[in-house]
TrEMBL record:
NCBIfam families: maleylpyruvate isomerase family mycothiol-dependent enzyme (TIGR03083). SUPFAM superfamilies: DinB/YfiT-like putative metalloenzymes. Residues 26-106 form the Mycothiol-dependent maleylpyruvate isomerase metal-binding domain. This is Uncharacterized protein (TIGR03083 family).
Length: 228
């Protein structure tokens, strides 16, 4: 009797359109929100990125996407030093110009990421997470959630499996089927998470989970962080 294909296994087949779809969904929600905010809101601190303001995060995101669109990946790109230079290059820009560049990047980077064979998929997930950071800084509801969450969770699951991350089975309020993350070779029993999708995203990206209700068994939160 052959092995049965589970829904979790199906996720391992890369959907090249998924990263671009995630960016487009987030663009359609985030850009109008940014354009409606007062200028001083762009100076608010972002708790998930110490030392960065909302504007810093947006400048980092727009610069990264512009690099993708223009295929500019010099040595050291996306290092902390490179990120700081990208932000500094935009110091003289208006907030509106940064938002315009971000909108263009979120629109045009998708096809480039789709054609990159998977090596840029994590960047799309990172952009979506940073959008959650901005929503969080604004006190907006739905940070690390919303319409893009299913695509973000599927991307997160595949990326953690490709990286051989610690195995975890997540029973999510937001999905009908359990989500399997991390390596599945059986070397260690999987941990288990019970809770909602935004909290799982926070755990995997090192964001604070203060006040969130969830269960995490068999693995420590610090072991989940894909950016750690």
């Amino acid at each position: 009797m052959g092995s049965m294909t589970t829904p979790a296994d199906v996720h391992d087949v890369r959907d090249p359109e998924q990263p671009g779809r995630l960016l487009a969904i987030e663009r359609d929600g985030l850009i109008p929100l940014l354009r409606a905010r007062a200028e001083e809101d762009f100076a608010l601190p972002v708790g998930a990125c110490p030392g960065w303001s909302v504007r810093s995060v947006l400048a980092h995101c727009s610069a990264a996407l512009t690099r993708v669109v223009e295929n500019r990946f010099e040595d050291g790109v996306f290092s902390p030093e490179s990120n700081d230079r990208d932000i500094a290059e935009r110091d003289g820009w208006s907030n509106a110009r940064v938002v315009d560049e971000l909108e263009r990047g979120m629109t045009e980077a998708g096809p480039v990421i789709a054609g990159a064979g998977g090596k840029l998929d994590g960047l799309a997930l990172g952009e979506w997470v940073h959008a959650g950071d901005v929503r969080d800084a604004f006190g907006e509801p739905g940070a690390y959630g919303g319409a893009g969450l299913p695509d973000a969770l599927a991307l997160l699951a595949r990326i953690t499996r490709e990286r051989g991350h610690v195995p975890l089975h997540a029973d999510l309020d937001d999905l009908d089927e359990p989500l399997r993350l991390g390596e599945s070779g059986g070397e260690r029993p999987p941990g288990r998470f019970i809770g909602d999708g935004p909290t799982l995203v926070r755990l995997y990206t090192g964001r604070p989970v203060d006040g969130a209700e969830f269960e995490l068994v068999g693995v420590e939160a610090k072991d989940l962080n894909i950016f750690g």
